[in-house]
Design goal:
Blueprint lengths: L11 H8 L5 H9 L3 E3 L2 E2 L12 E3 L17 H5 L12 E5 L2 E6 L11 H9 L12 E2 L8 E7 L2 H12 L4 E8 L7 E10 L4 E5 L8 E13 L2 E8 L6 H8 L21 E7 L5 E3 L6
Parallel strand pairs: 7-13
Antiparallel strand pairs: 1-2, 1-3, 4-5, 5-7, 6-7, 8-12, 8-13, 9-10, 9-11, 11-12, 13-14
Length: about 290
Amino acid sequence: MVAGKDDEGRRLDRVLRKALPELSLGLISRLLRQGKVSVDGVKRSGDFRVASGNNIEIVGANNYSPLQFSRGGAGVENANLCVSAPPRENLQIIYEGDGILIVNKPKGIPVHGDDSLETQVREYLAPKLPPSLSFKPGPLHRLDQGASGLVAFGTSLEGARWFSGLLQKGLIKKNYRALALGIVQNEEAWEDSLVRNTARRKTIAVEGNKHSQSKQAITKVKPLKYIDGNTLLEVSIETGRTHQIRAQCALHGHPLKGDIKYGGGKSPTGYYLHAWKLELPNGRVFVAEGEPY
């Protein structure tokens, strides 16, 4: 196996775990301890830092004897860790560059899992990315299956770390539009303590910080227009909790229309929640207009 640019500086054991998911962690650790893993012909331990261009060879891993891929050879598909099917035509790309890809996710498609947006993105990127043993393109933040709008993917390790770092520091502004039940008359700022109920797959509010796993959620809403006794909201979030907008809208008496899980009643099309804008601190703004209301 030949290491690529996105493997640079990573520990050897972690590169092997990503590159060879069919091998157990115990087997990889044992092979390293027994000196059966070499880099450029030299036996290395698991904490060795891999460099781009290193040739990694493993002897005695199950039926592989030896297991060795070379750049441009039989192992390139595995090294890329991407699905090599042709890209789907309905992938709506908003931006591509700087190690990230921003796409407009349709409503009803999951971000992860089988037949997901992640699968479509990997199909699209497969012929475009250089080989890597340990880096796999993936989403850098969440968006519910029933929601639509902007999702950012890392297309390089550097880009993924850069974007994720901005998110963790709260330097990326996320703006949504949502259709809520009832009339919201004024701009409001909601600060609540939320906790995730994993058994029910639902986010609930708790009083203060009485729950050890509660996390603060800050959401600002602004009414845009009224539709049949409901309110189209402009929503911005300063934190990124699971189901944050859905849970807080319900908590403050305005669940999203059609959001059964949070008390919004039934709707043949589900709820409307659209992630329509991302603002980066460098002045870049990405917009994906959703369905008109």
